[in-house]
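Field: COMPLEX_INPUT
Field: COMPONENT_COUNT = two
Field: RESIDUE_TOTAL = 528
Field: MODE = joint
Values follow.
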Amino acid sequence: MTASVALRDVTIAFRLAGGATYTAVQHASLAVEEGEFVAIVGPTGCGKSTLLNVAAGLLAPSSGRVEIFGGALAGLNRTAGYLFQSDALFPWKTAIENIAIGLEIAGTPAADARKRAEQWMARVGLAGFGARYPHMLSGGQRKRVGLAQVLIRNPGILLMDEPFGPLDAQTRQIMGNLLLDLWSADRKAVLFVTHDLEEAIALSDRVVIMSAGPAARIIGDWTVALPRPRDIAEVRHEKAFQDLHREIWAVLKAEVLKGYSQSDEK
Amino acid sequence: MSRAKLLLLQVIVAVVAVGLWHVLSTDDYFGVAVLPPFFFSTPGDVAARVVRLFAGGTIWRHLWVTLAESMLAFAIGSIGGVLIGFWFARKPTVAAVFDPYVKMVNALPRVVLAPIFTLWFGLGIWSKVALGVTLVFFIVFFNVYQGVKEVSPTVLANARMLGMNDRALMRHVYWPSALSWMFSSLHTSVGFAVVGAVVGEYLGSAAGLGYLIQQAEGIFDVAGVFAGMFILAGFVIAIDGVVTMVERRLLVWRPAVAETRG
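Field: COMPLEX_OUTPUT
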């Protein structure tokens, strides 16, 4: 079976202003199979978002290859949908226009696109909010619009960069459940970046741990065997969850501490 | 504060100011005229003059000329500013080459150009339009330039991930962003269009509010000067009101209308 996304021995380095190079990620290999939900967890600044940008084609790796459904990725990853951490909605478009834009760009007639956008508004629980501009929506509602904006294009791969990071704890759980709900309807490959280990375990099939940067590597890969469908809030109380959390945390903790001591030195 | 109370206080300010002017300009105090009517006129005279200008109907032609000049200056300056601003923002090399010249021309006090424009375009409306254009152009230009440059990188990345090509980016991202910056400077640019028109008229013309004021000044008709000033003030407030209305419609997606007043 070909993986939806495969990173093969990817190294990402940046040239700094002084002429030196900064290696963000080193020799990272990772494959996400079709229908698989993979979470990448690592300390702040470990380059996990950078890795996601490489999978999206927004950034070219310094060495190594990116394969999308078996083919080498050149340029932007057209089959991927990307949900950003910070606000990425078009502030000058209403919620419904924001959701419909992806279809319109692809050539869907405006009336059709609008109709499907209305359906998506309902699916993310925002029916009736279509005429609002992003600034009139709460943070959670904006995330819902963002989710619909990405999913309406029916992307083959879903890339998510700490999408629920800026939200409060309750909203995060609600959004997590909404995400699992939408995802289970037609399972696509998901690559989900977060620094929250609990969120990662609760959502995903596999948890990948990255070491602290610079030159971050992938240092662990755990399978989450918890049954689906899951409720994010409740799954945390299960013993299997807690055992896995303890096991992964033992590895992650050292990296988090390393990450902190490095950022203190800077 | 309630709206009625605010309005009351605002009216009181006007009444006190005009009252002081009236008292100090119509009477002597200990043999000293504090505001000699020759230099300061009196509120009554000025009001009578304003009424006469409107009643006689002569004012309408001048108002129309000033309005036409302002609007033309605004339109031409805005179109030029949007086009050049867009071009410079998308082509950093062009922007870098022209940068010192843009700064040079922008630093120049525009009034010194008025004689040249009069020579080039004559005493009619076009020399005033040209002066207004030089003022409006730079405001719009800098705002559009900024607007295109400062599109959020996340929004841009999102647009590309949603499948936008260069043309779609232009239409759905750069253009709305640039326009929003331009609209947020609408008060300033419209204001400067009026300034260009009136200053141009004052320096040499045959019609307009600036001409009216200049004519009155030429014959030491202080009441005429003040009347022209008050009419001009009313004119500017009316235009500003229209701009505010337009702005509310155009920037409905903004959390709060950010105004840049010059």
